[in-house]
Automatic annotation (TrEMBL):
Residues 21-125 form the Vacuolar sorting protein Vps3844 N-terminal domain. This is Uncharacterized protein. One of its GO terms (cellular component) is endoplasmic reticulum. Residues 1-18 form the signal peptide. Keywords: Membrane, Signal, Transmembrane, Transmembrane helix. Residues 272-386 form the Vacuolar sorting protein Vps3844 C-terminal domain. It comes from Decorospora gaudefroyi. The keyword Cell membrane does not apply. Residues 229-248 are annotated as: Disordered. It comes from the Eukaryota. The chain crosses the membrane at residues 351-373.
């Protein structure tokens, strides 16, 4: 399959402006992960200003400061991986649902086995994320548009409702014209519905090429147990503990690093969920401050069903040992939680103590001031001046 990056880029858009820069495979992985919404699994280790600039330039659309109209945009994304392309260097072409595409080259092309490993790891990371809140079902509608833009017999799978992956190689027998036509249809659908595309073209590997150690760099992978219990708990693929900041700084604002992998529960959550899995997934396992339970069973069944089962979070207090006392017991600090996902601290008792104390103190101060004012306004009794007379006249 003879396919060049410049040919496909020109077929996708007429606005490829400057010459494509060349980045390392590690930087390309950070860019791809940022575009797919998987940057929380990929650490920035000793990233220089040039790497951060490339990630900010090619990492996809940045969210507005207070959200804005980003909530109405489709989160669907199509990853096209073209292997065995007859070209000199690996190329990545990106489009964010507009009439303008960007592309950059890789300084060295990893082996096909490394590429397959990266694709499978990206899929595992996407499947471990909680589902996007999408009341208007725009993400899932875009997935149907992606399927209609691809060849009829292509093997494209949507993961976690938003990520579609299509991989093709020389065994599919597609010519350069066929591939350009397919990518042109994809670009047109992306402009209509607003989903993003990332096209990776890898040159044909040499017959004696060997798999390099960590050709794409080191990143984190979610464990199978963590995916069942907590959708955001990750297990590092590197045996040595990593203390470097995560690339999730680029999901909200560029060049702002977040030190934690667990994000807060976002959006307005319902008080009842239809299943235990939905409760654990949407509430991030009750923010680790409780557990999902069956709050009440539905009434009726079949045609006479009135209500369905209601699953929700049962919050439990967090007890923290502050320090050891001289006596037999240790001092503890108890924190109570509330909210549909146990994500809010219950400060009702301290609040009412503070408000009550403030009201009582204000009442005492005002009563004291009023008492002093009323005492000073009273007239002196006439008995005090009765025995007092002026000097006698001589």
């Amino acid at each position: 399959m003879k396919l060049s990056g410049a040919f496909v880029a020109s077929s996708l858009s007429c606005a490829v402006l400057a010459a494509a820069p060349s980045v390392s495979p590690q930087t390309a992985r950070l860019i791809i992960a940022q575009r797919l919404g998987l940057s929380r699994f990929h650490a920035i280790e000793h990233a220089d200003a040039e790497t951060i600039r490339h990630i900010n330039t090619y990492g996809g659309r940045q969210q507005k400061l207070f959200g804005g109209d980003d909530a109405a945009r489709s989160k669907a994304h199509l990853l096209v991986w073209i292997a065995d392309a007859e070209q000199d260097e690996a190329t990545v072409i990106i489009n964010d649902g507009s009439d303008r595409t960007q592309d950059f080259a890789l300084s060295s092309a990893p082996s096909p086995s490394d590429n397959d490993r990266l694709i499978q790891d990206l899929i595992l990371q996407a499947e471990s994320l909680p589902a996007y809140p999408d009341p208007q079902q725009r993400t899932y509608t875009s997935n149907f548009d992606i399927e209609s833009a691809l060849p009829p017999h292509s093997k494209s799978v949507a993961y976690n409702g938003y990520l579609s992956v299509w991989r093709t190689d020389k065994t599919d027998g597609m010519t350069a014209d066929d591939m350009a036509t397919v990518l042109g249809h994809v670009n047109k659908k992306a402009a209509e519905t607003g989903f993003s595309t990332t096209v990776v073209m890898m040159p044909r590997a040499a017959a004696n090429s060997k798999r390099a150690a960590n050709a794409w760099g080191i990143y984190d992978l979610p464990s199978k147990e963590a995916r069942r219990e907590n959708p955001e708990a990750v297990l590092s693929s590197n045996p040595a503990p990593s203390t470097s900041p995560k690339a999730s700084d680029l999901e909200d604002f560029p060049v702002i690093v977040q030190a934690t992998n667990k994000g807060p529960v976002r959006g307005i959550l319902p008080t009842c969920f239809s299943s235990m899995d939905a409760c654990q997934s949407r509430t991030h396992n009750c923010s680790s401050h409780g557990e999902c339970k069956l709050l009440h069973k539905g009434r009726g069944s079949g045609a006479d069903q009135e209500t369905v089962d209601c699953y929700g979070c049962a919050c439990s207090p967090t007890i923290k040992h502050v320090d050891e006392d001289k006596g037999m017991e240790s001092k503890t600090k108890v924190t109570y939680w509330g909210g549909p996902a146990c994500q809010k601290k219950d400060i009702s008792v301290p609040f009412w103590l503070f408000v009550g104390s403030g009201v009582v103190l204000a009442f005492l101060i005002s009563a004291g001031i009023g008492m002093l004012y009323s005492m000073g306004a009273e007239e002196l009794p006439s008995v005090i001046g009765a025995g007092v007379s002026g000097p006698s006249r001589k």
